[in-house]
Design goal:
The complex is a heterodimer of chains A (299) and B (505). Chain A has helices spanning 9-34, 42-60, 63-87, 92-115, 143-147, 152-170, 172-182, 184-189, 194-220, 232-242, 247-267, 274-298, and strands at residues 120-121, 224-225. Chain A is an all-alpha fold and 299 residues long. In chain A, helix 1 (9-34) packs antiparallel against helix 11. Chain B contains 17 helices and 22 strands. With 505 residues, chain B is of the alpha/beta class. Chain B is globular, with a radius of gyration of 24 Å. Classes of the chains: A mainly alpha (299), B alpha/beta (505).
Chain lengths: 299, 505
């Protein structure tokens, strides 16, 4: 078998699609991390977004409405998380788990009560995200399939990475966010509104996870499946750690996870058992956690 | 002195503050003039920090008025106080380690253009401010990499950047070397000369006498006196603080016995993987107190942790009572006669959420007397705890109260008391009196003296040179993970130790 042959248009083209949901969720997690909130509700927020996208697209008559409802769904759940974690000062871990369970149960319930189906919902009325072909770039070898032919959310995720990089390190809000995450009490004594910044970070993570969900259910496929986030929110949590809450580091981590997912996808075409290929991203996540631990204890 | 004539920068009148049933401040008056440096002294729990917390908007007083520059004020938060011209340098610095000096100083009131942080302007302003007040700092350094003395300058700059005219410093010299301390005093004198009012909270009476124009003494939440420092002595101040004369324990020179602790060519890696100890040799003999001086971060903690078994050495040997315990588990070291009072009292020394009795039980839970057949005997445990509480005069209403309800001095006596319950022959003790009030210091010092008089060996790591010079038979100085000097008690002076600690000798 020619190993290089694996790197064909299928693999390269699927990499951004697979990396984008993880990246968007991880960017949200990164903002929370910087604000001193450990957000493990990314999985639930993403799932709510995926469901909201299908609902919006079906009833709103288009992908744009789908994206809008996805963002709203993410925001609504994130507002709940912020209320309990920031205003009521609950335990972030417990609340994050509750958010994940709530999203999982609620989407299954609504799937049944709104669409009257179990397991999955697929309908011609659900409009997926349009694909953008970049003229000129499209024809290039390697870069063509990698960069061209994706939904706007894929490009938006890249723009968001750059925007968050600038926000964190060039903007006053970023400076305050970093300070709040490191030493909230010190920020408070200087009159910086800790709770407001934390709300902002959590709500932003809700919107970003909503977009991530929309990419899952309207970009990569055009349907909703129960628990279709399938651990990507958890992988995003790991990506935040692995990338040390730094936008470029997180981007790198997400590309790695996206790559293993698309590699697993690609290997399926080679008669390897799907149980093996589908577990690849999770095994790499596990491995990277070990690397992270090793680095953290040395650093 | 002009200070007495100047208008008051702030006045506290009849300030009363209660926490539940406890009266922390009882009708306290304090009036400090612009240009004055005022010492605020008193034991732990005397109400100094509470009083300054009231002034700085951290506590709402139950009674009394605050006037700043003649105007009556009500502070709901530190932010209100900052706006009224107050600045505070907290005992535990309120700094962001990962940010630069300039970023730390302007944080919360940043120069910006359309929301975009103007780093160049921040650096310029901080540099100008630093130059004007003689506070030497590099605006671009990351605060986490700076020595403690420089971090303190950053705290002062933060206050000055916010145009503070009243500066409160809570135990500012506790963490400084003698050189850093005199640099701080220079800065404070300069600020006062420019018209600032400075409140200097301290335990160290000699420093108060050296720096302050006047000193106000608090005891049990009340003012027991305000004295001109030029016309008083440390003895008089401590009498006002404690209500009786404090006698410094005279530790006699002991008969030295066999070597109890032997440290041979010890190499230890520090927290960041860097080498923290480079081939250290040290012995402590029976009946001997060996003091270890050094600026924080020169390997003292790593030495203590390597002996206590908390940090595995990379090379070299640790012998207790002649047995090689370099890589032995902690339980084995304990059995060999090790007692350990760690630097981090609340994190390592105690479980603050657990009760006093439970804290005293830790490490002894296997004793048949306290836990026959493994079942804890609450009566026996409490009775034993009451004994310790009495012996060390630990102030607690009930031995089942959580350790968190105790003041710093009482917590430290609790740790020392527990460690000395064992039949130990080696006591490793780090910063035994940091943030501890005078009467507790007396108790702790006596306990250390008694332990060594009974033939125990003590390795005493302290940043209080006074403490080392009173207690230790000899003092070794650590710098950069090495022993750079050794002085007998009679030859030790603050100047000589300070030079060695700075790595200058």
């Amino acid at each position: 078998m020619d190993l290089l042959g694996l790197f064909d248009a299928t693999l390269l083209g699927s990499l951004p699609r697979f990396a984008t949901p993880i990246l968007l969720a991880a960017l949200g997690g990164l903002l929370c991390e910087r604000a001193g909130v450990f957000n493990i509700g990314l999985e639930g927020l993403m799932l709510a977004g995926a469901f909201g996208a299908v609902v919006g697209s079906y009833f709103g008559g288009g992908a744009l409405a789908g994206v809008g409802v996805a963002v709203l769904a993410g925001l609504a759940l994130a507002a709940l998380l912020a209320l309990f974690a920031v205003t009521l000062r609950g335990n972030e871990i417990v609340i994050g788990i509750a958010i994940n369970l709530l999203a999982s149960g609620l989407t299954v319930y609504l799937l049944r009560s709104i669409f009257g189906v179990k397991g999955a919902f697929q309908d011609p009325a659900v409009v997926g995200l349009p694909i953008h072909r970049l003229p000129g770039v499209e024809a290039l070898p390697f870069l063509g399939p990698l960069l061209s032919g994706h939904s706007s959310i894929v490009y938006l995720a890249l723009a968001a990475t750059a925007a968050i990089q600038l926000l964190l390190f060039r903007h006053v809000i970023g400076l305050r966010l970093r300070g709040v995450g490191e030493h909230a009490e010190a920020a408070m004594t200087l009159g910086v509104g800790v709770d407001r910044l934390r709300y902002g970070a959590i709500l932003a993570s809700g919107a970003l996870c909503g977009l991530a969900g929309a990419q899952l259910s309207l970009g990569n496929v055009t349907l909703f499946v129960e628990n279709m986030s399938a651990g990507r929110g958890w992988i995003a949590v790991v990506a935040v750690m692995f990338g040390r809450a730094h936008p470029l580091g997180v981007l790198g981590a997400c590309l790695l996870f996206g790559f293993t997912e698309s590699l697993g996808f690609r290997l399926q075409g080679l008669m390897l058992p799907s149980q093996l290929t589908e577990s690849l991203p999770y095994m790499v996540t596990l491995a990277s956690l070990f690397v992270f631990r090793a680095r953290a204890s040395r650093g | 002195m002009a200070a007495g004539l100047a208008a008051p920068a702030f006045e506290l009148e009849g300030i009363t503050k209660r926490f539940g049933a406890v009266i922390a401040n009882d009708a306290v008056d304090l009036r400090v003039a612009a240009g004055e440096i005022r010492g605020l002294v008193g034991e732990n729990g005397a109400g100094k920090t509470t009083l300054m917390g009231v002034l700085y908007g951290m506590h709402r007083p139950d009674g009394g008025t605050i006037r700043v520059a003649g105007r009556t004020r009500r502070f709901d938060s530190p932010l209100d106080a900052i706006r009224a011209g107050l600045g505070m340098v907290h005992q535990h610095f309120m700094l962001f380690d990962s940010l630069t000096v300039a970023e730390n100083v302007v944080f919360g009131s940043e120069p910006a253009r359309g929301g975009v942080f103007d780093l160049a302007a921040a650096r310029r302003r901080v540099a100008r401010l630093a130059e004007r007040y003689g506070l030497e700092v590099d605006p671009d350094s990351r605060v986490g990499r700076l020595p403690v003395g420089v971090r303190q300058r950053v705290e002062i700059l933060k206050a000055l950047y916010r145009r503070a005219e009243i500066l409160i410093l809570d135990e500012p010299t506790a963490v400084l070397t003698p050189g850093e301390q005199s640099a701080l005093f220079e800065v404070l004198r300069r600020l006062a000369a420019e018209g600032a009012a400075v409140v200097f909270i301290s335990h160290k009476l000699r420093e108060v006498l050296e720096l302050c124009h006047r000193a106000t003494v608090l005891r049990g939440g009340r003012v027991t006196g305000t004295v001109e420092t030029a016309r008083t002595t440390a003895d008089e101040l401590s009498r006002l603080m404690v209500g009786k004369k404090v006698v410094a324990p005279q530790v006699p020179v002991h008969e030295l016995g066999a070597t109890v602790l032997g440290v041979e060519s010890l190499e230890v890696r520090g927290r960041h993987g860097r080498s923290a100890l480079h081939g250290l040799d040290l012995t402590v003999r029976s009946g001997e107190i060996v003091g270890v001086a050094g600026v924080a971060g020169n390997g003292q903690s790593e030495l203590a942790e390597a002996v206590a078994g908390l940090r595995p050495p990379a090379a070299g040997r640790v012998l207790i009572g002649g047995a090689d315990l370099t890589h032995a588990p902690i339980a084995l070291r304990r059995r060999a006669g090790l007692a350990y009072v760690p630097e981090d009292r609340d994190g390592t020394g105690l479980a603050v959420a657990a009760s006093v009795a439970e804290n005293l039980l830790m490490g002894f839970e296997g004793e048949p007397r306290l836990a026959p057949r493994g079942v804890l005997d609450a009566e026996a445990i409490d009775a034993r705890a009451r004994g310790v509480v009495e012996r060390y005069a630990i102030q607690v209403s009930h031995v089942r109260d959580p350790a968190a309800t105790l003041s710093g001095g009482n917590r430290q006596k609790l740790v020392v008391g527990r460690e000395l319950l064992r039949d130990a022959r080696l006591l490793v003790v780090e910063q035994p009196t940091r943030g501890v009030d005078l009467s507790s210091i007396e108790v702790i010092h006596r306990a250390l003296g008694d332990f060594s008089a009974a033939g125990g060996a003590v390795l005493l790591i302290s940043s209080e040179l006074n403490e080392l010079m009173t207690l230790a038979d000899r003092i070794v100085v650590m710098y950069g993970g090495r022993l750079v000097g050794e002085l007998e008690r009679d030859n030790a002076s603050e100047e000589r130790l300070g030079l060695l600690m700075a790595g200058a000798a």
